[in-house]
Structures are given as structure tokens and as C-alpha cells.
């Protein structure tokens, strides 16, 4: 799987990448058709406590995107992965 990371105003790169890859691995195990993941991390300039995580996943047939804000990056990643899992589940139901 091809994974890319983009950052804006964030210095926690190694930690975020390890955490993201770990969470993504669980999703990839459940949905082996995943081919690519793009992660976007940002700390809000005006409200420094807001951490943004966006993830775009590519499968052979589609692309899906989800994002969330939280006071901690690990929670934002977790929420975004949960949102993506729901979207993948819906996608599987419509393609079945």
C-alpha cells in the first residue's frame, strides 16, 4: 500500500506516522482492496488546540475521504478511521 503524509503547522511527524500506520493496518486487514492512503495533518492557526486529521483512501473502484478535529491528534486519527470504516462498509454494501 502506498502511504503519503502532509503536514501544516505540526512537528509530531514520526509519532503521527507510526500511529497512523498502525490504525491503517487494521483497516487494510479488513479491507484488502485498499491501494493508497493520503494523510493530512494540521494544527489550526487561530485555535492551537484544534488538531485536524484528513484521510483519503483509494480502492480500485473509488476514492473516499473523511476528516475530523479534536484536541489530540490520536483522537482525530481514531475518529477519522472510524468514519472511513463506515464509508467502506457502505461502499461494500452497494457494490455487493
TrEMBL record:
SUPFAM superfamilies: Ribosome binding protein Y (YfiA homologue)
Protein name in UniProt: Putative sigma-54 modulation protein
